[in-house]
Design brief:
256 residues; rod-shaped; mainly alpha; 0% strand
Length: 256
Amino acid sequence: MINFFRKTRKKMADDNRPLKYMRYAIGEILLVVIGILIAISINNWNEERKNRQIEKYYLGQLVIELNDDIQTLQNEKKTLESQIPIIANFLNVINVEKPDMMTFNNALKKYMNATWYVIRFQSNSATFEEMKSSGKLGLIKDTNLRNSIVVLYRNLDNCEKMFKSNNEFLTPHAIDLNFNKGMAVFLKDQSTMFSNFNSDKSLYEKIKYKEDFINNAANQHWTISEISPAIDTQLTEIQLVLNDVKKYLLSHNEVD
């Protein structure tokens, strides 16, 4: 193609010899400029194609990890809310002036085994952290989508901190009951090690810690009341961002 342009340019120059060399020189310059512009355009196109492939990969990973977060939060919410009727039943039993031994023991065992539970949540944010640290967040072309993702992970971080703070609040009370007041031997997970020490009579004697049990139950219920709606809010936000990511990928023909 370039040889063709050169031959044509040379023929035109030969038709007017006084301008021959000027035309030839200008033609050479134009050819170089056109060549450079074409090369730049091709390079830019290749870079843009690579960036879109990287964007597709990262957004696809975010979809996977956010779905994992949804599952984790849903499981956590289900576990916490399953404790509510157990706590309520235990409080009803323990507030009776002289509860029956078997009734008290069964309610207490269920309560301790249900609430002896570490409240934890850690977002699966590996992809987002990688994008942030490598400066690849900017590859998400849609500014609104990019901002929504940033805000979501900031809120997920706050959610983690809320879980952690509640767990730190409950832990000293759990340690006091289970170790200082000897309830650990009655936990299902520990019973095989302490089978000689967890008789019905020894468990019933723990009724003397009635006020401690009531305070602990109140703290557990308060924690669930705080965390459960926060989980709902977080689940809604994750789902909204997930929908936006999927729509963006579909609009760019980037999903199957």
